Amino acid sequence: MAKYLVHIFFVVLAILAVVVFVSRQETTVLPTFVKTDEIADVHTSKVKLTAETIVDISEEAQEQFKADYSNLWAHLNHLYSTNDVERGKEYYTEDFFKSICKNKHLLQAPNIIREDISHDVVLQSWSWDALVCVGVDTQVILKYIVKDKEPYYTKSKVAFALLFQGDHWRIDGMKFIEEKKYNIK
After folding, report:
1. Could you give the CA distance from residue 172 to residue 52 in angstroms, rounded to a whole number?
2. How many DSSP H helices and E strands does the chain contain?
């Protein structure tokens, strides 16, 4: 009996050694929080924020919201131009990601490039734990650059629901309420 216990002990020890060895192997995939976001790094837009919520929002939370909101739009613009859902997936909740994956199929060359110029965000609801917010971007100015044509602008109104997951805000729902041509002069 003791002889079998010794064999079992060595088998378990060998399995444990293999697991430790495999887990220590170098991986080339960096965790999301370590990666740099090239799309967001080169993007700038003006975000004006007004809070009409019952819960008071700290200045720090407002600044993070503005930065994250601008980054969200950087990835939405990239998605619009290329259909590349993978590049911005950390900015979408799982349900929103599934929704856009159903509608976006093939990667495409960016024939139309969309840039967001400015936003006028009105937060209408902010949860007490600062993990959910609902609002309306009352004046999104978008610039569309089409190959071999003059760029044109639109003015939109966009309703949204965002969730704070991980270390930034993610889109849970978004709806363009209206979009009209706009003269930026």
Report:
1. 20
2. 4, 5
